[in-house]
Amino acid sequence: MAQDSNVRKIARIVGVVTIATALGACGLISGLSSYSTGQCSEDCDGGKRPQDASHVSTNDGAFDTGTTMMEASEDASDGGEDAEAGCPGNEIECADAGCVDPSMVGNCGSCGNICGADADLCAAEDGGFACTTTCPDAAPLNCGMSCVDPTSNPNYCGGCDAGCSTNVPNAQPTCVSSTCGFACETNYTLCAGACVDVQTDNNNCGNCASSGGATCTGGSTCVEGMCQAPAVEAGVDAAPEASTDSGMAQLDAAVDAGPPPCPAGGCPTSTASGYTSCPFGKCNGNPTCTAGGPCVCGADSQCNSGKCVEVSGENDQSCAAGSGCSGSGVHDGFNCELTSTGIPVPSGTTTYSCPADSGFGTTTLTCQGSHANCYCTANNQCPSGKCVPNAANNNNCSGCTGTGTPDYRGCQPPSTPSSGTCYVYCAVGQCSTFLGGNCVCNNDDQCESGKCVCSGSNCSGSGTAQTNGCVAPPSSIACTTSGGTACTTSLTPTPVLNSAKTACLCVADTDCASGKCVNVNSQCTGTCTGSGTADSQDCETATSTADAWSCSAGNCDTVSSPTGTCTATGVPCWCTSNSQCGSGALCASWNGCASGACTGTGTSLNAFHCVP
Questions:
Q1: How many CB atoms lie under 10 A from the CB of residue 530?
Q2: What are the start-end ranges of the H helices in 257-305?
Q3: In the prediction, which pLDDT does 30 show?
Q4: Who's near 370: CB < 8 A, 6+ residues apart?
Q5: What is the mean pLDDT of residues 283-310?
């Protein structure tokens, strides 16, 4: 392996010397058609710049990187005279005027295009800007003769004097639904409120630390999304190599002493790195989507009720960054307050009672607990004269002396006549006939139902009786109701009460802040186009989903070029440079490698596409 390493190093040194000699002479390199010979302003060997800098442009990734570094060094020594600052955002560069906003009337769409009296407004048109007489519907607000959309323009977010800004490095201000926020610039990821490059950030290496990214410790640094220990090449040729070509020694250190090609958990696969915006509202807890999660309101204007309820951990950041959330109390799944003209909460009063004479004799039981059944609350409501105190049934029972297992209405069961054969005497009741009759009741208080069928004055039962003469008791006595709840609202059609009388349900899309009513309970009387998950009012809820994916190391094996991006989650990741394969291994060349970055050959490849 040491011999192979030395061969590779010698080859590299020869290649570098050859390239440096050729470039220094400013001559045409045979076979590289993208090079052109420029005229040297002074002696080339003196190291002066050529007049035509285009001769350093090449399609070869390795050559392009080297010449770019050479030009950057020369620009710095020249005081930056050839450097171009460029224009930020959507601004354009106009000669002496510098960077200008093409949405302004003085340079509407192009440099020097001044809007005149016949068309004195500047508005967006066909992907650019043009002079117009009236502001279009897409940009209805006139701010200094410029037509803007206050719902999405970060310079006029919600009004002409409401520009958005952000102090977050590597981020740009945004305006969504008239609410200011920020979005990370390209190649930066939002981690704990900061925009970082997860390919180089030591605290969020490969991904945000909160989402499985690594924190590089012990002197290691984040390189291409993986923590790498300080590289020191071992071997007898380390000192001479460092003295003659320190850059080559560092490259060998990365190849020969780098991290293993796959972490302990196995070779990486692609994971979500970006998320679509919410179809309505905002992502859970953030002005912009950084992860999958529920979508909720972030401003009063997003609710039919005109009031968004701020909920800690859900939309408190969105509400703070927007125009405010003034709602309170009960809210729907979109965090909108339930009030007119939004879907109402059930209103009205339901009265619960028990049927007259439901207790023993002429007494009436009381509706308890869940308002389902009637129970005794006094001894005189029971045939036995004893109501059993029981918090679950009759916690209003005062002075009750019953014990044991209560019957269907909370009473201690009475002593009832047995149904066995009797000969003159019965412990309870009387014999139906002498010499072989049955014991039957002769008083109401001998029956659990409180009704005995007999001819005596103490019996109130009638109809069919049990063998002991008592009317069979019911399993329970249900509460009766009067009045009731309702859904009172100005919405048309009117939301309906659910079967449990605990919520009002949408009956049309217009009832919901999301604009989507789901016909979960077959309650719709209008147009309902919602589907999927619904909240307690049957309005559709939404969740942000991933729309971009990346690899913590390398790139998805499905890409067709070095600049290709992952298009799904869970796709295997392959190495994209030799340095990712660890000690003694090289990355096999494939579509995802830049020219010269992967030089491994052979058929014995591991799961990360490295050649041992």
A1: 21
A2: none
A3: 32
A4: none
A5: 81
